[in-house]
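Input record (Table S2, row 547):
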Amino acid sequence: MARIIPPRVTSHPSWKSLKAHHKEIASTHLRELFASDPGRAARMRAEGAGIILDYSKNRLTDRTLSLLFELAESCKLSDHIREMFEGQHINKTENRAVLHVALRLPKSASLVVDGVDVVREVHEVLDRMGTFAQKVRDGSWKGATGRPIKNIVNIGIGGSDLGPVMAYEALRFFADRRLVFRFVSNIDGTDFAEATRELDPEETLFIVSSKTFTTLETMTNAHTARRWLLNTLKKDEAIRHHFVAVSTNAQAVSAFGIDTANMFGFWDWVGGRYSMDSAIGLSTMIAIGPENFRKMLDGFHAMDEHFRTAPFAKNLPVLMGLLTVWYTNFFGSQTVAVLPYDQYLKRFPAYLQQLTMESNGKHVHLDGSLVDTDTGPIYWGEPGTNGQHSFYQLIHQGTHLIPIDFIGFARSHNPIGDHHDILMANLLAQGEALAFGKTAEEVRAAGVPELQVPHRTFEGNRPSNTLLAPELTPAVLGALVALYEHSVFTSGIIWGIDSFDQWGVELGKVMAVKIIGEIAGKPAEGGPHDSGTASLLDWYRKNRRKG
Ligand code: G6Q
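Output record (glucose-6-phosphate complex):
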């Protein structure tokens, strides 16, 4: 029987209508849109799970929105959302359910997937994590020589690192300051050396975070950590006091010498980049305590419920996911800048890079056919106001259209003098300046010499979203992460791609293993390299040892 190929999104009538509509409004300025519509800001605002989204400074009208919602309907977005929440195997290429939403369901809930109540399992692990985290926090978890643990080093990479690092930095205000947290991810020995340089092994706990427990970087770093520890503590017996694991691979954990009683599990339906609220968040829980961790989960869950139940027109992730499609596919934008005006969110853009780009950086549809339109844009950003003195020039006056997500909070955890007012004034000023710009007439009227006028003119019409919340709490962080998770999902559904696999990281890994062998003197497997790679390898071989 012939395979049924679903229609491409570009052939949907609403896509064609959006193309035509884009032509009509592409040259409309945000100045006109605001001037002709006094109710715009009030109307183009939505709120969910404690987060406000102001999307009025986007290049769209009510007609754009209704066409985008039509597109979402024609791509059956609601059905896809339901399928994810039900635990259907929507990660088609790996034949897996995608259930990070189950990680934050309340204890009283139940969700049976493939015959198992996953909520019960999730809470069993959370309870065990809570008991362990509490012991480390109150000093009753002792190292091999009887000293309490002071340093916690998370070893992991990708999804087993970026979430924990980001969450630790984001929630540092809530962290127990007696404890020191370090994160080792890179295979570069410098990462391990610098993270552990002044730590005392007797007071150090390693969390080896690896879903598979086979990842080259993580296992190499874990073995280095083992040697580093045993160098001082000598006996293998010390391992179980200083190493715990977060993994789905009990056999490999045990072979490493870690007591599986000190292993915290998760499931194949949790993707790496969707795992910071699973046991992968153990370092976060030790830092902020089990109660705050649960508040973070509640924030995730509140956004899940908002995504699941709010109508598209009021649904933050749906709106943001559709706006990404609007700019990527109709305006040809290549990137999205995420600019958090909060120092605690300094690692948030890096975290989002994996979440968004590993999820939606795909070139084929679910059925394997080539996409015929662009998919996931490049995400990047820095915390405000640092970026203003660096790359904002290009956003204001360069030739690329870069949609922006500004993120800000009403209150700072560190209310020093008028710092926070100045910070927020900058956020508001940037959104306004980007949208409305400054015309040549305005520049001239300010007495600027004619020679400088073109250089000091701001075209404006640069779009932005503004996300606001009262303050950066564990619950707000959870809601913010879930907002992006679901907006990535929304765009992925429109593009008809698998947002939950990551085959694109495989090829480089395989080739690295081959070259590792060659550096060690083994013959090249599978034929010679291209001449460029061969000469680089030759240079490295000759120069890798001093003298
Ligand atoms: C994320 C990816 C990837 C993964 C790392 C670490 O979605 O799957 O970033 O998290 O490769 O994998 P392990 O946890 O198995 O070590």
